[in-house]
Design a protein that fits this description.
There is one protein chain. By secondary structure, the chain is α/β, with parallel strands linked by helices. It has two domains: 119 residues, Rossmann fold; 139 residues, Cytidine Deaminase, domain 2, CATH 3.40.140.80. The chain contains ten helices and 13 strands. The strands form three sheets. A six-stranded mixed sheet has the order 6-13-11-9-7-8. A five-stranded parallel sheet has the order 3-2-1-4-5, sandwiched between helices. Strands 10-12 form a two-stranded parallel sheet.
């Protein structure tokens, strides 16, 4: 990796993994936003975007990675600095177009300062998976058919900026991942009456949406995802090859194996 790197870190294991691989990177966190970096970071109020830009410039940063999970935080317009005030209309307009439009606007604003935004998968290529079975039993014919059905559903919904995950069992869709996220989807599936599932286990498919900017919004699975899939009684997980991250890979693969399910990757 060429250039000086900074990371804007939010919650989850990914920022920690990047910090371990790139200890020299400038670490930036946002006040009130959870993270796991301890004291080794510079913290700024989210309303003070100008201060963030100043820190990047002072450190001569030319590459920036966004890492970790961040829900849309509450902001106090009265606390906006001059930079945030100037870009707020652009952000508000982008919000009307959904998360993808908002994130593209955020990238554009940062890159206007001369900083290139890169993806975590560019720093840690091992985060993603190539085509094929990663671990666990080989999926059967029914699991493969359910995977095809789930992929078709996600592809159809993708232009509407809805859904990175889908569960199909016996050809029937048991749930789509919406704003509430993966945990809510899998909990909903686990509560599906057996008479509706008719003895079919089913699969959980996770994939990026068409046109999704993977530099800041690449879908991910981790040990918690695997545990939820097992509780939901599914046969396994399918992720899009090269476009979904496996966080805490060793723990995730151990969880897959320990639950007797499968994890496979495929190109959609």
């Amino acid at each position: 990796m060429a250039g000086k790197l900074a990371m804007l870190a939010c919650d989850g294991a990914l920022p920690v993994q990047i910090a371990q691989a790139y200890p020299e990177a400038l670490k930036i966190t946002l006040k009130g936003v959870p993270h796991r970096l301890g004291q080794d970071s510079q913290e700024f109020p989210i309303e003070h975007l100008g201060s963030v830009f100043d820190a990047l410039k002072a450190a001569e940063i030319d590459q920036l990675v966004f890492a970790g999970s961040l829900n849309r935080p509450a902001m106090d317009p009265a606390a906006f600095d001059a930079v945030m005030t100037s870009v707020a209309p652009r952000l508000l307009a982008a919000m009307q177009g959904g998360d993808d439009a908002l994130l593209r606007q955020v990238i554009e604003i940062f890159e206007e300062t001369g900083v290139s935004v890169i993806g975590a998968h560019e720093l840690l290529p091992e985060l993603t998976a190539i085509d094929g079975l990663q671990i666990g039993p080989v999926p059967g014919v029914e699991e493969l058919e359910d995977t095809d059905r789930a992929c078709a559903i996600l592809k159809a919904l993708s232009p509407l900026d809805v859904g990175q995950g889908c569960v199909v069992a016996g050809g029937q869709c048991l749930g789509i991942e919406t704003l509430q996220g993966t945990d809510a989807l899998l909990r909903y599936v686990s509560e599906t009456p057996e008479k509706l599932r008719r003895g079919h286990k089913g699969v959980y498919v996770k994939a990026a949406k068409q046109g999704q900017d993977l530099r800041v919004d690449m879908p991910a699975i981790g040990p918690e995802t695997v545990a939820a899939v097992a509780v939901a009684g599914l046969a396994g997980l399918v992720i899009e090859a090269g476009r979904v991250m496996i966080l805490e890979r060793e723990k995730t693969l151990q969880a897959v194996e320990g639950n007797g399910i499968f994890l496979t990757a495929r190109t959609l």
